[in-house]
Amino acid sequence: MASLIKSLHPRLWFTGLWLSSDFRKLWGSLTITHFGGQITFLALPLTAALLLDASPFEVGVLTALEALPFPLFGLFAGVIVDRTPKLPVIIASDVGRGLALLAVPLCAWFGVLSMPVLYTVGFLVGTGTVLGWPAYQVFMTERVGRENLVEANAKIGVADSAAQLVGPGLAGILIQWLTAPFAILLDAFSFFFSAWMLRGIPPRESDAPKVKRSSVKEEILEGLRTIWHNRTLRALVWVLGTWQVFRHAFIAIVVLFCARELNFSAGHVGALFMLAGIGSLAAATLTARLNARFGMGPTMLTGITGTGVAWLVMGAAMGPYWLASAVFGLGMFLLDLTAMVFFINYLTLRQAVTPDRLLGRVTATMICLTVSTAPLGGIAGGWVADHYGLRSAMIAAGVGALLLGVLATWLSPLAKMHELPGPPQEPAVTESVAEEMAGD
């Protein structure tokens, strides 16, 4: 009996980063906001489509405005993250996004909800994410250490998988019960609760700004130089930046595709989106094994190509209700399985090859560059759906991702990268980005 009790001691199964209270709080706050985000992901376009009778193009504009802050403010966000302590930035962005989301149920309550309101909320939430997400990633890297990045990102992947596994089903139920605008209220509260959790993390020396104060322009250029000097980071920028076009075309029309093309209810859509969580959960457990067997780079490229297959599968959903549900659900499973395989490796690789003092700028600059194409994807997806149909837009996204996978295998160094690169070296100082581009 004594040995049985001893075997149940939490220390035996609560190992690794779970022993760090800082990581547990960071993981918990992100998990909560991921769950809340599942509600808004479904509720915001459903509010536009069902309550405001928006066209596919209008929903595409909404998707574009949510991503627009990345190219507008992303480079400045990197400077802010490197110049200031990270935790206050994360907390402020959580509070700001929560306040922005509160506007949707309040406007619905007073009968003044409109597409311009949704546009404004989407833009403000995107602005909070531009600041909060790179600050979170840098803060997490500083707290767990580079040697624990793979474990940290895998655990975060599990959190995201759990949110996608349970969150969409709950979101669908809440949307049907409360209506879409009032379900968003819970997402607002998730940001407030996340900020409350994070405020208890004690400061450390690593929180101090990593750069001396200089001109904002010079700091932005240094972040760009770092990326340009590193072949891996350059490849990740153009591969992921191109993929974001197809991803946001998909995001712009997927909920409308379910509601109008397949005639799924909000609850049914939420249930099918739960299959994406199963795919993410599988990826979180399989990525390390796939890397060991096939190599990190080939695994990443297979993942990004697989998203194209997933979109084609979803675009093929039709026929009887049960068959359309099965095909669409299979596509959702494949999408998050393959996308998560890519992103677990992408986040690990980006953090591993970046010098400590430049983590904030490189993280924010990479996000800015790779998401700067997203507004084009949202508008393109809405335009194609308006003119050629929702199914055509879905298929176009799939074909684009498949071609991208082939092109990336041919042109990028990722196909030959089998292991995580060694410790990063400080980049050489150069006069200008243009000079380096000309000399490539």
UniProtKB/TrEMBL annotation:
Transmembrane segments: 26-52, 59-81, 87-110, 117-136, 174-198, 235-257, 269-288, 300-322, 328-347, 359-384, 390-411
Region (Disordered) residue spans: 421-440
Keywords from the UniProt entry: Cell membrane, Membrane, Transmembrane, Transmembrane helix, Transport
Locations listed in the record: Cell membrane
Domain of life of the source: Bacteria
Membrane-related topology note: Multi-pass membrane protein
Pfam families for the chain: MFS_3 (PF05977)
Broad class of the protein's primary localization: membrane
GO cellular component: plasma membrane
Gene3D superfamilies hit by this protein: MFS general substrate transporter like domains (1.20.1250.20)
Protein name (record): Enterobactin exporter EntS
Organism: Usitatibacter rugosus
Gene (UniProt): entS_3
